[in-house]
Design brief:
The complex is a heterodimer. Chain A is mainly α. Chain A contains 15 helices and two strands. Chain B is built from nine helices and 20 strands. The chains are: A mainly alpha, B alpha+beta.
Chain lengths: 289, 366
């Protein structure tokens, strides 16, 4: 790096060029730092609050906890009505990711490999499923799931989220699958693989980053989505996000516990994105890079 | 193992990709499938492999109808133009893959993979992954996978197109050597006439979905059945001149005359097409009765150590293939000499009537 930066300056024999370069670099760094600071402030503030007592939070401005406490976290980890929220959310999110992948993998393979009547229209129609806001589906889902006894189950939320995740998953996976030359499929058949064996042993490993990215996008939607998750559950499968919105008790709002819950809600997202960090950009382009 | 195609036709979306192909490939033969892009070479190979089904007709293996048999049960192997390997497996696992599925014992797999890798000079890369290798080595891996099992039919779909010139020649030679010892049928698709000649064996000429000629490569080269075959099997394409034959002489394009010589004395008076190989036209006369024509240079392109010279005058538009590098400026007036002894004669319908040298070998019949 340094060698390439120094070279032009040495050749030109003038120092101002190098200096200007350093200036632009400095300015760029400053700009980025300012932006990151700006983005991170709310998250820092949340973290800050989660280690404070309610008195301190309401007492006045302090940039870091004056009386550092883990009580807020203790509340969450000891009270089932809090920690079950996480368990519920995780359950239906995982369930949703699994169902989505099981459905979307064969569908995406069909779209990427076969020609059939109306394939292009069907493919586009899938994406239009995402164009309606979730609120549109509140009533039908609520009524349907109530009448078949799915109301307030993890499966209800997982299935409802599939409506939005399956199309997206098909689109992303199709992109990744089309990046694998068809000749690889044929070579496998020529070698003697049956379709199933080929799909599991050769094809899936080839698109594993695509599967990871798809799972991440499904997670992201399902973990964050509040409206359907809250409406389709009451007690048994109530998600953490819904619990966080209903914490106004007789004593007012429990700021510290809420902040701690917020911090804990961010962590799974952080973990998931860490695993797919190298492939996410390709996922945003629906696998078509 | 013999492979027979009977009246095979393949129609995709109303378009004929293959039109009534009849072909019989003998056991142990090396067959070059020569045709331009979109002639149907790949379609034909996919049918032979069983990757596609013919719309009409039958495919017979050793006399047994295998038209509907899936590719897994056919014991074939195929090498593609692109370097197709399983990217997430090592070269060893890539080559071993067909053996693994055939449930060959592990020590036997090790032995055969090693042998095949050695034949193709990739034994030092067995632990690497295909994408860490150069293009030539990747294609060698694909070939090793094709050769490691005892396939009764081995298909090469323009396997060397994506490689550089030197590597191409080297691998071409190796393919020929490797297949000599086998009793399997090899089919090799190519667009280049020179490749077909270099590989020897048999050549099948494919033109717009039809097989126009099948026979030993040199035979097909020397005696093309019609104009299409002659054009296909000549690089640069053969020169065609329309001419008139009278009782005593031949007239090219109503301008140049020469007396009927013994080669073409058998022709009835009338109109014909005369074909001349670009390599047979010279800048100096080779024979007393060569025909001198004044032309102007249009373009001289140098290809390797040869020069393809395009020349024209108001009547003729010719290509010459000259050995060595010749540089000419456009519009330079020169004289070229047409060989009256080395003429291919075609009827106006394109059928070949007369090839140079044929008279001495068996006489003219037509």
């Amino acid at each position: 790096m340094t060698a390439t930066i120094n070279k032009p300056a040495r050749f030109s024999g003038v120092n101002s060029g190098a200096k200007r370069k350093v200036d632009t670099q400095l300015r760029r760094k400053l700009g980025i730092s300012a932006y990151i600071l700006f983005v991170l402030v709310p998250i820092y503030w949340l973290l800050n609050m989660s280690f404070k007592s309610n008195e301190e939070i309401l007492g006045g401005l302090s940039l870091w906890p004056q009386n550092f406490t883990l009580d807020n976290y203790a509340v969450i980890f000891s009270d089932p009505s809090w920690y079950m929220g996480y368990v519920n959310s995780m359950t239906y999110v995982s369930l949703n990711v699994i169902i989505t992948l099981l459905v979307a993998l064969p569908a995406a393979y069909a779209f990427s490999r076969y020609k059939f009547t109306g394939d292009k229209h069907l493919f586009f129609w899938l994406l239009t499923n995402r164009m309606a806001p979730p609120a549109v589906f509140l009533l039908p889902f609520f009524q349907l799931y109530s009448s078949v006894g799915l109301f307030d189950t993890h499966l209800a939320v997982a299935l409802a989220h599939c409506l939005f995740n399956v199309p997206l998953a098909v689109w992303i996976l199709e992109g990744f699958m089309s990046g694998v030359p068809r000749e690889i499929d044929e070579t496998a058949y020529i070698d003697g693989y049956s379709f199933h064996k080929f799909f599991l042993k050769i094809f899936l490993p080839l698109i594993r980053s695509g599967i990871g990215v798809t799972a991440f996008f499904c997670f992201m939607f399902s973990w964050v989505e509040l409206l359907l998750a809250r409406t389709l559950t009451s007690v048994e499968a109530k998600p953490i996000a819904a619990i966080m919105t209903r914490t106004v008790g007789a004593t007012g709002i429990d700021w510290g516990v809420l902040a701690a819950a917020g911090v804990l809600t961010i962590i799974p997202g952080l973990l998931v994105i860490w695993f797919v960090r190298n492939h996410v950009a390709k996922g945003f382009a629906l696998g078509r890079v | 193992m013999s492979l027979t195609l009977q009246n095979v036709t393949r129609i995709v979306d109303g378009e004929y990709h293959l039109d009534d192909v009849n072909l019989m490939l003998e056991p142990g033969s090396f067959n070059v499938l020569l045709g331009r892009t979109l002639a149907g070479k790949t379609s034909l190979m996919r049918l032979m492999a069983g990757l596609d089904k013919p719309s009409e007709g039958r495919v017979l293996m050793n006399g047994v109808d295998v038209t509907g048999v899936p590719v897994q049960q056919r014991n074939i192997s195929m090498v593609y133009q692109q370097f197709i390997n399983y990217p997430n497996w090592t070269v060893f696992e890539n080559i071993a893959s067909p053996l693994r599925l055939a449930k060959v014992a592990e020590p036997e797999i090790k032995k055969r993979v090693k042998e095949t890798a050695e034949m193709l000079h990739i034994e030092q890369f067995l632990e690497r992954r295909p994408l860490e290798l150069s293009g030539g080595q990747q294609q060698r891996t694909a070939m090793a996978r094709a050769l490691v099992k005892d396939a009764s039919l081995i298909l090469f779909d323009e396997p060397l197109v994506n490689l550089d010139y030197k590597l191409r020649e080297e691998l071409r030679q190796e393919i020929r050597e490797l297949l000599k010892a086998r009793n399997s049928i090899a089919v090799y698709a190519s667009t280049e006439p020179n490749e077909a000649l270099a590989l020897g064996g048999k050549t099948t000429l494919l033109h717009e979905g039809k097989v126009i000629q099948h026979g030993s490569s040199s035979e097909v080269y020397r005696y093309p059945v019609n104009v299409d075959a002659a054009e296909l099997f000549s690089e640069p394409p053969i020169n065609l001149i329309r001419g008139f034959v009278s009782d005593t002489e031949v007239t090219f394009d109503s301008t140049v005359h020469f007396p009927l010589n013994q080669d073409i004395r058998g022709l009835k008076p009338g109109d014909y097409y005369f074909g001349m190989r670009p390599s047979h036209i010279g800048l100096v006369p080779h024979n007393d009765d060569d025909l001198e024509v004044s032309v102007r240079v249009e373009l001289a392109e140098i290809s390797g150590s040869e020069t393809f010279m395009h020349v024209k005058n108001e009547h003729f538009n010719l290509v010459l293939q000259l050995s060595g590098v010749h540089e000419y400026h456009t519009d330079t007036p020169i004289k070229v000499y047409l060989p009256t002894h080395k003429l291919f004669v075609f009827g106006l319908d394109g059928q070949m009537l007369q090839a140079p040298g044929r008279l001495y070998q068996g006489g003219y019949h037509g």
